[in-house]
Amino acid sequence: MNITEIKKLDKERIVPTYARYDMVAEKGAGACCWSKEGKKYIDFTAGIGVNCLGFCDRGWIEAVTEQLGKLQHVSNLFYTEPQVKVAEMLTERSGMAKVFFGNSGAEANEAAIKTARKYGFMKKGEKAYKIITLENSFHGRTMAAITATGQEHYHKFFTPFLEGFEYCPANDGEAMERLADENTCAIMMEMVQGEGGVVPLEAEFVKKAEKICREKGILLIADEVQTGIGRTGKLFAYEHFGIQPDIVTFAKGIGGGLPIGGALFGEKCCDTLQPGDHGTTYGGNPVACAGAVEVLKRMDGAFLAEVEKKGSYIKEKLQAIPKVKKVTGMGMMLGVEIEGKKAADAVAESLEKGLMILTAKDRVRLLPPLTITFEEIDEGIEILKSVLK
Questions:
Q1: CB 118 within 8 A of CB 277
Q2: Does the annotation flag 13 for ligand binding?
Q3: What pTM, to 2 d.p., does this model score?
Q4: Catalytic: 271?
């Protein structure tokens, strides 16, 4: 099909839940993407944080292709080697006990919410179902996850919501102390509020939340869907804060481009869910897990140190641009506050000049592949600089 035919069919046959940018992607390699017309783009999006190894990484392709030749799916009624390999790697690296595999970040958070609710029921009784999340948070678009999301914009049209969620202002430890009562089963938070503008939480507040959880028998859930799997320079962002959550949710980068997510559980709640309590047909799919094994193999100490180095390099380059007011975030998850231009306009103009970037509320958001080269970073920053002049 040509470009016109693709766009026409998209408009006629696909539900318009996304306002697409004006580019038909055809192929990619590393941190470069080419359109159907053959135009090259530097990618600072990684498929919204998914393509952590970039486009079409050779090692990743070999891993998933080999698995495709063996077994593409068999369901969770049977054992498979790729799934237990990923589980072993994740638990050993995180210090958690067990893992549940799903297909996405929203599903990962649903598993965490259900686990917290059952844990509260078993430990404190049927009224202990309250979950505290943060204002300006984002946890997904399913009904429970969107209820957990602390932004009114995402709540419009979809009432009634699940009961039992309360929202605490980010970094307000006193408010958290007041909200956490005998009916609270969990506190759920992102270490960096991604869709909320790429805003890291304050370390003191995160420590305070952990302390409240320990003192009151509440589960601490770290939503690492966007921040996890090396994005901030650690395997998980909570490591920067010196805490140990009871549940850690993950997705996006773990599959390197294939749909896989899940929740890691600590000893306190790793056996809360029992057969029949939860499930998934596709979760832990052998091919997706083969990709995840390759991703985790690559993320050793040297790789993660390089991510931190690249993140600092990008931040320094951005801060030297006159129209950049502020840069927030951690590692290679950065939010850029600009002046003189709306973030959405900066994204559109950057795309015209060959750079793929994102927005997060009123900021430009950068989530480059973790394998991007310094030369590609320089090329992308020069395009952004020209757009902001």
A1: yes
A2: no
A3: 0.97
A4: no
